[in-house]
Amino acid sequence: MSQSHDEHGHDHDHTPKVTGANERKVLLSFFLIFGFMIVEAVGGVLSGA
Question: Over the stretch 12-30, which tens digit does the pLDDT of each residue have?
């Protein structure tokens, strides 16, 4: 009952494309998360946690 799934019958790939828009989204996400991390760290230090 083994089947080969190597040939799907279509000529396009499913690899993600790296574009400027994708890079901007990743950088925006990084800086947003990094900013929250800094705010939480400063808040923890100031509150003595």
Answer: 888 888 888 999 999 999 9
DSSP string, 1-45: -----S--S-----PPPP-HHHHHHHHHHHHHHHHHHHHHHHHHH
For the record, the structure tokens of 36 come out as: 């929250």
Assign 3 a pLDDT band (cuts: 50, 70, 90).
Answer: low
Rounded distance between C-alpha atoms, residue 23 and residue 16, angstroms? 12
Q: Is the pTM of this model over 0.70?
A: no
**What are 14's two structure tokens?**
């499913």
